[in-house]
Amino acid sequence: MHRWGVALCVHDMGDKAPPRLATGRVAYVRLPGTNGRYAGNYPDHMLQDWANWLNAQIPNVRAIYAYFNNDVSGHALNNARTLKQIMSVA
C-alpha cells in the first residue's frame, strides 16, 4: 500500500477493529463513539492511547486525520478538541 500511497482507515470498533496501521503518507482514524454506533463520549485515557499511536506515526506520515462521528449528545466536537490538545502536549 505504501507503494501506491493508499491510506488505510483505522476504525475504532472494539474487538472488530482493524489493526492500527498507517499506510501511505496518511494516518487516518475514525472514532464513532464508545457506546454502540455513533454514540458515547471517549474518556481521556482512550484519547491518550490514540494520541500516543498517532504521534508515533509522525515520522512516517505527512498528515494525520481523526474523524469523530457526529453523535446526538455532541461528544464528537469535545473529543476532537481533547485529542488535539493531548497530541500537542505529548
Please summarize what this structure is.
This protein is of the alpha/beta class and 90 residues long. The chain has helices at residues 44-57, 75-89, and strands spanning 9-11, 26-31, 63-68.
Taking all residues together, what is the mean pLDDT? Answer: 87
Q: In one word, what is the shape?
A: globular
Biggest β-sheet: strands ordered side by side in the sheet: 1-2-3
Give me the secondary-structure category.
alpha/beta
Radius of gyration in whole Å, from Cα?
Answer: 13 Å
SSE topology string: EEHEH
Biggest beta sheet attributes: 3 strands, parallel
Helix content: 25-40%
First and last CA, distance = 28 Å
Number of E-type strands = 3
Percent of residues in beta strands? Answer: 15-25%
Low-confidence stretches: none
What is the overall number of helices? 2
Integer tally of domains: 1
Describe this structure in words.
The structure is a single chain. By secondary structure, the chain is of the alpha/beta class. The protein has one domain. The protein is 32% helix and 17% strand. The chain is built from two helices and three strands; from the N terminus they run E-E-H-E-H. The chain has a three-stranded parallel β-sheet. Helix 1 links the parallel strand 2 and strand 3. Helix 1 crosses helix 2. The longest helix has 15 residues. The radius of gyration is 13 Å and the shape is globular. It starts with 8 loop residues before the first strand and ends with a helix. The model has no long low-confidence stretch (mean pLDDT 87).
